[in-house]
Specification:
- By secondary structure, this protein is of the alpha/beta class.
- It is built from eleven helices and six strands.
- Helix 10 links the parallel strand 5 and strand 6.
- The termini are far apart.
Length: about 250
């Protein structure tokens, strides 16, 4: 059983705020953003953020690690488009996120110019990774402009990493740093990553530390180093690659 009365109350509170004069709305919104985030999110969905002042205040909160999750939910519910072409940095590091939160991030990535996505230690899991790419198109014309993606420590397996590769592929013209360390993605997924990067001349830093790699994974990385001239830093600590794996990597240098 579940009870929806709190959700209904939050919705009615949002509608009530919509009927107030704009100045009074702004005063309440400043109070509600932190105290009643669900009411605030409802309000954004109801109004579509028609007031420019409220829209601008939401954008400012994207720069705060404490407020960024709620701000992303508001933008998703209101289906907002960017006010300017200025690039954003999304830093949600070490904030536990739900699948719905990842869906909101996906919408933001699909509509807004984002140069850095910092989501290390968010424990999104494979389901979160699936939601993270829901709004990202496979079309080349819809390429992302990400320069840095950090998804370290997110409890991802090879299944989740397959979803993440959609971000890597659509950012291939700009992505300079990729960190997927502390995710048990295994040799098979590292093989997929290295295959994609063989013809990439932009990425300069790759971190696959503590990813459950063995000699096979190290061999794939060694083959990548033979043909990729842009990669300058490769972090692969805490993997059981043994002497044979180290030799395979060294042969690629």
């Amino acid at each position: 059983f579940s009870f929806a009365h709190l959700t209904i109350q939050e919705f009615l509170a949002s509608v009530y705020i919509c009927l107030l004069p704009q100045q009074e709305q702004q005063r309440l919104l400043n109070e509600y953003f932190k105290a009643y985030p669900n009411v605030f999110t409802f309000l954004c969905g109801v109004t579509g953020l028609r007031h420019v002042e409220m829209y601008e205040s939401i954008h400012l909160k994207l720069t705060s690690r404490d407020d960024v999750v709620v701000a992303l939910k508001c933008i998703f519910e209101a289906k907002c488009k960017p006010l300017s072409a200025a690039f954003f940095t999304l830093d949600m590091s070490h904030k536990t996120v739900l699948a719905y939160d990842c869906l909101c991030v996906s919408y933001f990535l699909s509509c807004y110019p984002v140069s850095q996505l910092e989501m290390s230690g968010c424990d999104m899991g494979d389901k979160g990774a699936d939601m993270l790419v829901k709004h990202i198109s496979n079309e080349v014309t819809s390429s992302l402009l990400l320069e840095l993606v950090n998804l370290s420590g997110n409890d991802l397996t090879a299944v989740g990493m397959e979803h993440v590769m959609k971000i890597v592929r659509t950012s291939s013209a700009t992505l300079r740093e990729l960190d997927v360390s502390y995710n048990e993605i295994g040799d098979g997924m590292v093989s997929v990553i290295t295959e994609h990067l063989q013809h990439n001349n932009v990425l300069t830093k790759l971190n696959v530390g503590y990813c459950g790699l063995s000699v096979r994974g190290a061999s794939c990385l060694g083959e990548l180093l033979k043909v990729n001239n842009s990669l300058k830093e490769l972090e692969m600590s805490d993997n059981q690659i043994g002497d044979e794996g180290v030799l395979s990597v060294c042969e690629g240098l």
